[in-house]
């Protein structure tokens, strides 16, 4: 077997000639070429082609616009071979490993029993297509043929997205150790001329400032890295990328490649661009301190890394990925199957009373919440153990008897009687040293012998990889859910992980990074969903620290940020809506300390939360009659527009910006274009310039729409008119009520006549 790769170009060139014969047109789905080991993955608007060279390299041959026929493929590889860059380095290998003549970012690294630390994976001659949209391709190590890798591809045909992962199986008779197991490599074709530019768009953040959109030019020779090393996806970056062609005087391209990792632990994505203009993106579970042992006959499957292509710019990418995530959420979760079951309007008293939850106070709030139209009443932190602040009680999942003398059941019953669902907060991965659980089981946390245990928010991290720990957690949660008829839980996580290891473990102790997610967090969430199919779960990690697409496929919704100041929230929702379906992204209306001293009207607060799932977090006990009436009115309106909001595509017509806090406008449109909701916001602006025309999108241009506008009051329609789809899109609308205004907003509801 020739592994130096010099024959790659030659063999593919031969293949190209054969492809020039007339071939039948390509339908969507996965097709194998009749002659060659080449597979065409065809979605509505894109095609991804992989093929094995005669030497056995499995390479990407095309990713981009849809190919119509087999002979549309030009399989010639760009010849960038010289001694410093042997072909495997620049080959567009589907699974570039550490080893051989590969000197670019790789996906997989293993240490073999004889001490060799490289692999040589080649096409094994086997590939299976299942149901027309799933492809499994086997690779085998060229020298240790018992080492097998199966690459998995699953097509989301309607959303132009490919889901990738792979399974590595150790067929050797001794153990091997993995030290890196990213999920996939993606190869973007060469950018056009030398003056052409590509930009990578990523999401940065901090606690209370999640998902801030950042973009920067991809420069040759530079590797762009985004990551979390914190044990959970975190706020600092999000496992998402989009790479777009920057249009120039000679190139009008609006092509975008985008992707996201479905993994709720540490992760990394890197994008390297060569001087030849090719970009390789690799990513998956973070490799820092990662380790996994494969005993003979054991296998390991990576998390998914999904990616897609669109020629419709960032609005296209923003439509396809959330639709994809929604589709898989719907596939996986009983609670999400029916799109006509809407996410509830919830009340949560965390910002209003923090840890001071008592049966009496919560019931008072519930009595006020129900007539407002609230559908889910949630008790947040503070209901259990000795939990009066964040320094004690975490881990003691027993109802605090001083605060709830008769337990939670009477509260849950009354909430149900009032017509609301009942929800409860948990933070099942954390423990305060000042808790009964820790006093009893100090060895249930991550720790190293002989050094002090680091505390953050006065807490340590439970090692959910240990079966006794996860069973304790599961058992406490399941018992409380069953005993109190709990309909919803908020699963929080407030501490980055450290000292992650296993004790008395005869395998690799570094497995703890993966085990505590897979066998801990995911295990418990899946088991709860199986045991209580109607249970709704919200994922939270100090706000939006855990909202990767993997968690969204297992849970119902995410808490996008602890920062409920509406103008900050808009920025956060702008970033998060790149990958989150709108219904998943929760925002509360509050009168929180975040905006103390600034007057932001209640209407503005509601309209910001109208972009996704609506919650109320204010101290409604202190609301005036007028405020209660207004809130009830907005909630009623929200319920009318939520079929569009929760099932539509959230697009942005005017982008919010950290620099100029003037205005932002979004438009959510139903898939059949029959309805849309435009939300316009005017921030605290030093200028009084009137707003420009706002041109809408994605409407039916030949239809007429009736348009209704609300601004300050849910009870008064400000404007009502009819307009054609063409006019709404070509000329647009004027939100005159936002002229010369501070913190003023408008809801525009359009319905096709
Ligand atoms: C985190 C969450 C909040 C709240 C508190 C409770 O910060 O993000 O919403 O639940 O914990 O301690």
End-to-end C-alpha gap: 68 Å
Strand tally: 36
* Structural class assignment: alpha+beta
Outline, from the CA principal axes?
A: globular
Spans of 5+ residues with little confidence (pLDDT < 50)?
1-15
Largest sheet properties: 10 strands, antiparallel
If classified by CATH, what would the architecture of the domain at 29-330 be? Distorted Sandwich
Q: Can you describe this structure?
A:
By secondary structure, the chain is α+β, with helices and mostly antiparallel strands. Among the domains are: 302 residues, Beta-galactosidase, Chain A, domain 5 (Distorted Sandwich); 169 residues, Alpha-Beta Barrel (TIM Barrel), CATH 3.20.20. The chain is built from 14 helices and 36 strands. The strands form 6 sheets. Strands 6, 7, 8, 9, 11, 12, 14, 15, 19 and 20 form a 10-stranded antiparallel beta sheet that branches. Helix 8 packs parallel to helix 9. The radius of gyration is 27 Å and the shape is globular. The N and C termini lie far apart (68 Å). The N terminus is likely disordered. The structure holds alpha-D-galactopyranose. The site of alpha-D-galactopyranose (GLA) has 11 residues, from loops.
Concise summary:
Helix content is 21%, strand content 30%.
Task: Record keyword descriptors for this entry.
alpha+beta; 21% helix; ten-stranded antiparallel sheet; globular; TIM Barrel; 36 strands; 14 helices; disordered N terminus; Beta-galactosidase, Chain A, domain 5; 30% strand; 753 residues; binds alpha-D-galactopyranose; eight-stranded parallel barrel
